[in-house]
Every structure is written in C-alpha cells, then in structure tokens.
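look at this:
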Amino acid sequence: MKRTLLLVEDDVHLREIIHDYFAADHWEVVEADNGVAALEAFDHQSFDLLILDIMMPLLDGFSVCRSIRKRSDIPIIMITAREADEDQVHGYELGADEYVTKPLSPKVLVARANALIKRVEGTVGAEDDRLNFGLLSIQLQSHQVKVQEDEIHLSPKEYELLVYLAKHHGKVLSRERFCGTPHGALIMKTDDRRWIPM
C-alpha cells in the first residue's frame, strides 16, 4: 500500500525534485506551494507524512505546523535554508519530528522519511505483522499480546490503546496532543488527575 506525502514547498524546482524521489520510492505525493493551500489539502485528505518548508508565502511553516499539531499526530519534517538554532528549537517545540536544512539531498530526505515512519509506527524490529518491544510482542492480525511467552488478555479498547502507544514508541505524547486523536476517547480523567483506560 502506498503511503501519502503532503509536500509543502514554494520553490517549484526543489518541490519537483523531492516529488520525483518520493514517487520513485512508491509514495503518493500531494503538493502545496504555500501554507494556506497546505491546510486546505490537509482538511480534505489523509496523509502519512508532512514535509514542510518554513519560509513560505501567505502562511509560514511554523504557523502550519502549529495548526496541524492541534488536531493531528502526523509525522512532520521541516525544511529550511535557515540554520539558526532558535528556528530548530522553535520547530521542535511546535511538534516537528525532524528538521532538515537546505541544501538537502533528496535521496537522504527519502531515507530519513522512511526511518521516521518506521520509528513512529513501531515497525523497527517488526517481523511481518508483529511489533516487538523488548519482552513485549504484539501480533496485529490475531490481536495477541505476549510478554515473553505469557499471553496478556486485554479488552478491545485496551488493545487498541496499547497498539497506538506502541506505534508511537519513543515519542512524548502530551495530554492535548493525545486527546486530539481518535484514541483520546479511550481514556478518561479521574478526580486525582490520573488517566485510566475506559
């Protein structure tokens, strides 16, 4: 199954090059040349990855990243010609997962994108339909969860929540960011501020 990329870059030549490299790697690529067009595309289609330039007309990349992070956990790679540490820190604070400076290698960008997707989805170390995390093993087709060889019995909602967290292994999920996903409905807040599965 093809993954879908939303590529937001106002430099036509660079956008075409990145598009071609991702298409050659079997990605479906949707392009936007400014921040407003990017948000419109995001509202009308589901994407697996967002590559986002910072300096763009109408709406800059920081603003787009901030808007999307309020409603989605999509992996985001930000690209820019500016190397200032403050810009990179600001991008990470807004929820960017990767930061790439120009001039960039499209081949390396594709490799970094694929590595990010694997990390986010928890497929690093996975075999077929299995997610492995140390002693924990999750069989996605059979919905079987094991710690070492001991099977763990979970309710459907507990299993769904576990898979979501496993696929975001290594990432910090804030309460606001988590509750902005469909899985946020799987938890409730108790009076003592703990979060428990429903």
